[in-house]
């Protein structure tokens, strides 16, 4: 039983988290291209042929002479390199999340897309508010469900009943990570809804 549980948790994590393959492949291709260019420049220099862009001796001397350049240019270049490094570090460490949640189940790994959860919550909110499903908009993010309901003109809507219905559905789903709901009822009704 514990083997299945660990398998289900691995499958759920795999389905709810995005891989970093595209970023890793892009960086690898860029590094390969730079290494190939530098290697080509070195071979051309050894063969006494003209450089494609910059001769290796010029690259080395300009890297050593960077302190002789104006401070504002060196500072700007340093800030740009630091920002690129910070973005790559955050992208590598932060978990990539897909718009999905896992539903509690002991017998299987159950993953639902946020759009499916939003659709179900919209249906229950419309039923609880006694309005047309077209008048309910729901968006589900990682930890929050925003329910926006527009009542028919002249018909009162019980916001507490809608909130209770939405919260009851969320409790039944037992989503991981846990989602909290915020229900908003529009002040102005819609004619003929």
UniProtKB/TrEMBL annotation:
InterPro entries: DUF6286. Residues 83-185 form the DUF6286 domain. It comes from the Bacteria. This is DUF6286 domain-containing protein. The chain crosses the membrane at residues 21-53, 73-94. It holds the Pfam family DUF6286. Keywords: Membrane, Transmembrane, Transmembrane helix. The keyword Transmembrane applies. The lineage of its organism: Bacteria, Bacillati, Actinomycetota, Actinomycetes, Micrococcales.
């Amino acid at each position: 039983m514990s083997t299945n549980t660990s398998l289900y948790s691995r499958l759920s994590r795999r389905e709810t988290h995005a891989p970093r393959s595209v970023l890793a492949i892009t960086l690898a291709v860029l590094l390969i291209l730079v290494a190939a260019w530098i290697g080509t420049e070195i071979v051309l220099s050894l063969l006494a042929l003209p450089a494609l862009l910059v001769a290796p001796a010029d690259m080395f001397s300009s890297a050593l002479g960077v302190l002789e350049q104006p401070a504002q240019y060196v500072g700007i270049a340093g800030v740009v390199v630091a920002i690129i490094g910070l973005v790559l570090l955050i992208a590598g460490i932060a978990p990539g999340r897909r718009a999905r949640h896992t539903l509690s189940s002991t017998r299987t790994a159950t993953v639902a897309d946020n759009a499916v959860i939003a659709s179900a919550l919209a249906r229950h909110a419309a039923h609880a508010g006694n309005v047309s499903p077209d008048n309910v908009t729901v968006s589900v993010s990682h930890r929050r469900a925003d329910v926006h309901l527009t009542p028919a003109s002249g018909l009162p809507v019980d916001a507490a009943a809608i909130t209770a219905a939405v919260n009851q559905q969320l409790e039944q789903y037992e989503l991981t990570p846990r989602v909290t709901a915020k229900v908003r009822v529009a002040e102005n009704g819609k004619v003929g809804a």
